[in-house]
Amino acid sequence: MRFLGLLVWVLSAGFAVQASVFTQSQLETARELRDAAMQETGAFEIVKDLTTRVGPRMPGSEGDARGVAWAKDALEAMNFDRVWLEPVTFPTWTRGVETARVLGDSSQPLVVTTLGYSPATPAGGIEAQVVMFDNLAALEAASADEVRGKIVFIRNEMERSKDGSTYGPAVSARSMGPVVAAEKGAAAIVIRSISTSEHRFAHTGMVRYNWDGDNNLVPAAALANADANQLERLVNLGEPVYLHLDLQPRYGDMYTSHNVIADIKGSEKPEEVVIISAHLDSWDLSPGVLDDGVGVAIVMETAKRLLGLEERPKRTVRVILFAAEEIGLLGARAYAEKHGEQVAQHFVGSESDFGAGRVYQLNARVQDDAWPVIAAIAEEMKPLGVELGERDARGGPDMLPMRSLGMSVVDLAQDGTYYFDYHHTMNDTLDQVDRTDLNQNVAAWLVFTWLAANSPVDFGSGANLIP
Ligand SMILES: [Zn+2]
């Protein structure tokens, strides 16, 4: 009996904590927003319009400017209290000719794409022997004599994962490979695409690039996974393999793009800001749908539905569509430079930048007192299939600069099992978006945004949350 009494006390105490976090009316609004979004939302129409009218939005391109104009117009049509632009300036880079061909008795073309901010090969391309490495560490361990004058080929494969945790370990071949190859005197580098598909789409992405202009890189490209398999087989035949590689990208002038920002002013604490964000730019190879047109649509549709309520959230909800994420979080860094001193007023932030897969987990980096609030928010996401997750979060790539200053962040963690089949390829098109999954994302973001903006407890942004 004593045990039963204790159990009843624990259960009722637990219930009391849950019930006291938000008011009944706040919870009812969250549930109405959630359930209506699961029926249908305008998110698909938003991503369709952006990626059809504007197309690819490579930082510094004409599409970048069109994207900023599109976003400004779309947000201004939505009744925000304020819409504005903040400048982000960087040197540009444009893709050119990109071909690879095996020479000799097995002569054949390979599908290849230039990595972002790679230098060009000499005009007409280069011809050199291929030297294959299992991964970046193997290249680092090699002597300069093994590498000098050759085309380095890093063959490491990326494992498939739901949470995307396998991307980080694989991507160093792309970011650091061109740097290490240059240190050892290589002529160029080709890597297996950082990809989980076996398609003949090559995946681009950024190399490690110093914006002060001090770079020592070799021309760098990614092979489609199927072509990386083919090149491996050719190397494994045991005879020297020679490649002709022609990459003709060009560095260009400085360009100023913009973060596009819009506020729904809070009714009680307007100076405290809940950031919901995505990035507006994309790579040049596709219309940038999964990366990150869908993120733009998810946060815009979330804001639109909050604007449709009669009641305003207590805190300000700020939509940020970041510029130049793909080439090094440049928009996010510009935002942190301008607003970093007000980190304590940035109540919490998050970015949707992992495709359109369903949200399955809510992770949060908040002070201990706020964890019951996160648990209460996750409780309202349960009907969406979302579980309470980890007591830490990254917040999404563009949240990292503010997170490093101590801003509280959450992850609405998405199922990314298939995200890296399409990421940074020609194949990132609207055809890959599932409307139902997209609506589920909007539903989860509505629950999070509405409740976080009305939280009775501070999430702890400031010095104590500095990682
Ligand atoms: Zn992205």
TrEMBL record:
<keyword id="KW-0862">Zinc</keyword>
<feature type="signal peptide">
    <location>
        <begin position="1"/>
        <end position="19"/>
    </location>
</feature>
<dbReference type="InterPro" id="IPR007484">
    <property type="entry name" value="Peptidase_M28"/>
</dbReference>
<keyword id="KW-0645">Protease</keyword>
<keyword id="KW-0458">Lysosome</keyword>
<keyword id="KW-0732">Signal</keyword>
<keyword id="KW-0325">Glycoprotein</keyword>
<dbReference type="GO" id="GO:0005764">
    <property type="term" value="C:lysosome"/>
</dbReference>
<dbReference type="InterPro" id="IPR039866">
    <property type="entry name" value="CPQ"/>
</dbReference>
<keyword id="KW-0479">Metal-binding</keyword>
<protein>
    <recommendedName>
        <fullName>Carboxypeptidase Q</fullName>
    </recommendedName>
</protein>
<keyword id="KW-0378">Hydrolase</keyword>
<comment type="subunit">
    <text>Homodimer. The monomeric form is inactive while the homodimer is active.</text>
</comment>
<keyword id="KW-0865">Zymogen</keyword>
<dbReference type="GO" id="GO:0070573">
    <property type="term" value="F:metallodipeptidase activity"/>
</dbReference>
<keyword id="KW-0121">Carboxypeptidase</keyword>
<dbReference type="GO" id="GO:0004180">
    <property type="term" value="F:carboxypeptidase activity"/>
</dbReference>
<dbReference type="GO" id="GO:0046872">
    <property type="term" value="F:metal ion binding"/>
</dbReference>
<dbReference type="GO" id="GO:0005576">
    <property type="term" value="C:extracellular region"/>
</dbReference>
<feature type="domain" description="Peptidase M28">
    <location>
        <begin position="259"/>
        <end position="447"/>
    </location>
</feature>
<keyword id="KW-0964">Secreted</keyword>
<keyword id="KW-0482">Metalloprotease</keyword>
<keyword id="KW-0333">Golgi apparatus</keyword>
<keyword id="KW-0256">Endoplasmic reticulum</keyword>
<dbReference type="Pfam" id="PF04389">
    <property type="entry name" value="Peptidase_M28"/>
</dbReference>
<dbReference type="GO" id="GO:0006508">
    <property type="term" value="P:proteolysis"/>
</dbReference>
